[in-house]
Design a protein that fits this description.
Belongs to the SusD family. By secondary structure, the chain is mostly helical. It is built from 26 helices and ten strands.
Length: about 625
């Protein structure tokens, strides 16, 4: 892995193209470096790894609208001033939920590479240059050349897909534009939505033929693309194309290009779901063929005492934070660097050093409530769960001693929840196995009322009283002598593919034993009964999983729970056209600066998110529309 990163960094330097910033609007002037860049195999490989650079940069979740605009986490800096949520820098993506997106200087601008966006058009051009020049070096073995070409094609397809998912119809850059091209040739126009999706799928199909099924030498090649990854991405692309945002969306029926051509399909095509289902099954089969399976806990470090319940929580969490395990279908190399944003201060040592733990990644109450009860149904459906009194107070008891500090006063809603709640979310009174203490008979715990959540420094605090525990490795120990147990970022897990397949099957033919079986694989892993069992025994709506609409709701919620905080929910909610409703209610939390139990446990509104119809797709910067009159603005912008 270190070898790959070193080569990657070299490739980034070698492959720098010093041309202008508007890659679709001006003639590039980078040809002077081509002769040296493809003079031999080593130089060509470095150029290819330069094409990987922006893919690796996506491991920074602050660049990912699936994370920053999902409603799962908010960033509370400068919360006294309700008009700002940080700037357009590292925390600026969280402003997407506050209605602060604009077309003059867009947030997450991937068209131009500003405001936490990346220069994807430049990188696509870089991939094309590689493909057009890889025959120059004479010392590249034919097998190696095929693999490199396949990797470059995958990367080009994925960068197009990322832009397509953000902007809808986009130009297709399948070839690098010649340096002597006319201004009209340079000014590319958007293609129809389906032609964009079809191009991405066709390019992925071309790539996967010559990709290896799996990485054989992880020490040297971890992070490179495989055939299995390409199949998994194809499944995601086709499911996205079949989803309501892009499949016959009436909101975009009048969206036309400069030549009057309709850019969105006029009507939904149900057959797209079958195509997606077939791709999901192919991806699952390929993953299983190379050894993909549910994660089994790999103990790291010294464990003083660990009960079966604690082991279960670490297993659920470890599927994400224990890098390169068999459940992870696609993992990116760079290490997740924001544990200090997601972690509470659970020791006096950490609390005494505000620079060790910021705790800014704050989970709204609404997100904490999507997790099921211990009976495996939504808490507002469980006929045995006291939903009405969930904000009342209750003391930790023996039955919950491995989840909640015994005799500690906390909210009643923290009791009788499913294991994924306790493995994913931390709250006042929650036990915290790790941070230097691996004894679940008397572990560290979150003492938020005492001020660990909200020190007087109001730039480094948690605004809601809930933390994204899932993002924190139990071996990380912040404090005066901080040690972080880092891990690579996961893009696709096997359980995510299971739920994607279940979703497609339900959309094709409605509820069936096969659909239930794929959902139940996830639920079994999470320690829950099957769908039919849980709903028939515990839900106020026992027939819900027997209808297509009801099972769709179950699958959507299951996916949000299983993949919580993994940078997926924001994209799912967009393609389902559900993000607007999720962000319609205020973000609430406890009164975190109050130092009494009764005062702390008063719900307060942190802020009201703002997300309208126009926000489902991102605006193109207005300057781009002026420099390229062949482009049309995203609808409603």
């Amino acid at each position: 892995m270190k070898t790959f990163l070193n080569i990657l960094l070299t490739g980034c330097i070698v492959a720098v193209m010093p041309g202008c910033k508007k890659y679709l609007d001006v003639t590039p002037d980078n040809v002077a470096t081509l002769e040296s860049s493809f003079s031999n195999a080593n130089e060509a490989q470095a150029y290819l790894f330069g094409c990987y650079s922006n893919l690796q940069n996506l491991a920074d979740v602050r660049r990912n609208a699936g994370f920053t605009a999902s409603g799962e986490i908010l960033f509370p800096i400068n919360m006294q001033d309700q008009t700002t949520l940080g700037g357009a820098g590292g925390d600026g993506g969280f402003n997407l939920m506050r209605g602060l997106q604009n077309s003059l200087n867009p947030l997450h601008n991937y068209w131009d590479g500003y405001n936490m966006g990346l220069r994807f058009w430049e990188t696509i051009r870089q991939c094309n240059i590689f493909l057009e020049n890889i025959n120059i070096p004479q010392d590249v073995e034919p097998f190696t050349k095929k693999r490199w070409v396949a990797e470059a094609k995958f990367l080009k397809a994925y960068y197009h897909y990322w832009l397509l998912r953000m902007y809808g119809p986009i130009p297709i850059e399948d070839k690098s534009i010649p340096i002597n091209a006319s201004s009209q040739e340079v000014r590319q126009k958007q293609q129809t939505l389906d032609s964009c999706f079809n191009y991405v799928v066709k390019t992925l199909d071309e790539a996967m033929v010559d990709l290896p099924p799996a990485i054989q030498n992880a020490a040297a090649e971890a992070g490179r693309i495989t055939q299995t990854i390409a199949l998994a991405v194809k499944a995601e692309v086709l499911t996205t194309q079949a989803s309501p945002l892009f499949n016959g969306n009436p909101d975009y029926v009048s969206f036309k290009g400069k030549d009057g051509e309709s850019l969105f399909p006029a009507a939904a095509d149900p057959s797209k779901w079958q195509r997606a289902a077939d791709a999901c099954k192919a991806a699952i089969d390929a993953a299983v063929a190379i050894g993909a399976k549910p994660y089994e806990l790999r103990i790291q470090g010294n464990i003083v005492s660990m009960s079966d319940k604690t082991k279960q929580l670490l297993t659920l969490q470890g599927a994400f934070v224990d890098g390169w395990n068999p459940e992870q279908v696609w993992t990116l190399n760079p290490n997740f660097g924001w544990q200090y944003m997601a972690m509470p201060r659970v020791t006096a040592d950490a609390a005494s050093n505000v620079f060790a733990v910021y705790s800014n990644f704050s989970v709204p109450v609404s997100e904490s409530e999507i997790f099921y009860s211990n009976n495996g149904v939504p808490i507002n459906e469980d006929k045995n769960w006291d939903y009405t009194n969930r904000y009342k107070l209750m003391n930790g008891d023996t039955a919950h001693r491995y989840y909640i500090r015994q005799d500690y006063t906390t909210a009643k809603g923290n009791f009788y929840r499913e294991p994924r709640y306790y493995s994913s979310v931390a709250f006042d009174g929650a036990n915290w196995f790790g941070s230097g203490l691996t004894d679940d008979r008397n572990p560290n715990y979150v003492n938020a009322v005492n001020g660990y959540a909200s020190p007087p420094d109001r730039t480094r605090y948690n605004a809601t009283g809930y933390w994204a525990k899932k993002l924190c490795h139990y071996q990380s120990v912040p404090g005066q002598n901080t040690v972080w147990q880092t891990y690579p970022w996961v893009f696709i897990r096997l359980s995510g593919l299971w739920l994607l397949y279940a979703e497609c099957l339900n959309e094709v033919n409605g509820p069936s034993a096969e659909v239930y079986s794929w959902i139940d694989k996830v639920r079994t892993k999470a320690g829950l009964p099957g769908v039919l069992t849980s709903w028939s025994q515990y839900s106020r709506n026992p027939g819900k999983p027997t209808t297509k609409d009801g099972l769709r709701q179950i699958i959507h919620q299951e996916r949000r729970i299983e993949l919580a905080f993994e940078g997926q929910a924001g994209w799912d909610l967009r393609r389902w056209k559900e993000l607007q409703s999720v962000l319609a209610t205020p973000f609430q939390g406890w009164t975190v600066f109050n130092r009494t139990v009764s005062g702390y446990y008063q719900l307060s509104t942190v802020y009201q998110p703002s997300f309208g119809l126009r926000d489902y797709l991102f605006p193109i910067q207005e300057y781009d529309l002026l420099t390229n009159p062949n482009l049309v603005q995203t609808p409603y912008w």
